[in-house]
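Please check this today:
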Amino acid sequence: MHEAQQLRISDQLAEMDFAMIHDFLARHSAWARDIPAATLRQALAHSYCVGGFVGAQQVSFMRLVTDYATFAYLSDVFVLPAWRGHGFARQMLQSVLQQECWQRLRRIMLVTSDAHGVYQPLGFTQPAHPERIMEIHRPLVYQQSVE
């Protein structure tokens, strides 16, 4: 466990540690296991990305897939295991959600299997009408070979 330290939050994609982000998502996440580096680069290039840094080390990440006017999908939120327990995910989320541009959006959605306690205090709730939500879900798409 690290001593409590100040988290610096940045939305500068050039500052992000792509190797660390890719390693965590491809090897340690349940939702993006085996994501190819090229696929992740494209996803980051077309998203609003936020990193959390302690000193020069990036220790957390999140991104919003958005049109910047009406809708955003919150994705890929993580804190490296050695840095968990300091509230870094909540700090990043609060920093972003307090910005006026995100407060004007009609809807911000996310999918989580186990972090409801992180998101509920920030205003996220269960969908009012889950029966209206539909999806095409391909959980093994990154494991399929591309011909």
Summary: The beta strands are 8-10, 48-54, 57-66, 71-79, 107-110. The first strand starts at residue 8 and ends at 10. The two ends are 44 Å apart (CA to CA). The helical segments are 18-28, 37-45, 88-97, 100-103, 116-119.
